[in-house]
């Protein structure tokens, strides 16, 4: 991929700077994208799109300090992931629906397992109906098991902001359930 980016640049100084930035941050970007999308192909596309955005705004991006560039590229990658998820209609429902619902058969009777699975699927339906950021934070917290700090780093938020987002997302799901007479 680096060769594609370098071909888009005109002078050697820009090519050198792009090589340094790409080599230093590509794995961090891919890691962030994987946390968000949980899909390698989509993550690679998001990172590719992010570095194309860097080239498009090279004057601004190349002037940033290393730490500022890292902050900026992480935000760009996060936004590219969200854009790709929207474009592909890739929702949290897809993730939840793909998860194997595992309950140890030794621990719970079969009828309780069936009830739990039904509840899981019903809640998944409501999660699929809320906005993408809310779905994303719920998925990252409860499906991927990330901490507030890890979610915050991936999405460019403080842990407190992540906590608030998760609380509001759960309220949205509860409200949808209550509208259908469930959970009252």
From TrEMBL:
Family membership: Belongs to the sigma-70 factor family. ECF subfamily.
Keyword tRNA-binding annotated: no
Protein name: RNA polymerase sigma-70 factor, ECF subfamily
Keywords: DNA-binding, Sigma factor, Transcription, Transcription regulation
UniProt keyword Ribonucleoprotein present: no
Domain RNA polymerase sigma factor 70 region 4 type positions: 121-172
GO BP annotations listed: DNA-templated transcription initiation
Top-level division of the source organism's lineage: Bacteria
TM segment ranges: none
GO terms, molecular function: DNA binding; sigma factor activity
PANTHER family: RNA POLYMERASE ECF-TYPE SIGMA FACTO (PTHR43133), RNA POLYMERASE SIGMA FACTOR HI_1459-RELATED (PTHR43133:SF8)
Signal peptide start and end residues: none
């Amino acid at each position: 991929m680096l060769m594609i980016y370098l071909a888009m640049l005109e002078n050697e100084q820009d090519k050198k700077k792009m090589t340094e930035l790409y080599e230093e941050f590509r794995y961090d970007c891919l890691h962030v994208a994987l946390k968000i999308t949980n899909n390698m192909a989509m993550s690679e596309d998001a990172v590719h799109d992010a570095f194309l955005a860097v080239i498009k705004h090279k004057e601004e991006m190349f002037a940033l300090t290393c730490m500022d560039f890292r902050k900026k590229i992480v935000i760009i990658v996060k936004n590219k992931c969200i854009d790709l998820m929207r474009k592909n209609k890739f929702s949290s429902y897809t993730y939840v629906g793909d998860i194997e619902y595992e309950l140890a058969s030794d621990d719970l009777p079969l009828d309780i397992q069936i009830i739990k699975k039904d509840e899981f699927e019903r809640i998944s339906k409501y999660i699929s109906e809320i906005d993408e950021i809310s779905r994303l934070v719920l998925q990252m917290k409860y499906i991927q098991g990330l901490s507030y700090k890890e979610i915050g780093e991936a999405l460019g938020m403080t842990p407190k902001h992540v906590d608030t987002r998760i609380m509001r997302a759960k309220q949205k799901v509860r409200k949808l359930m209550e509208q259908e007479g469930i959970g009252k």
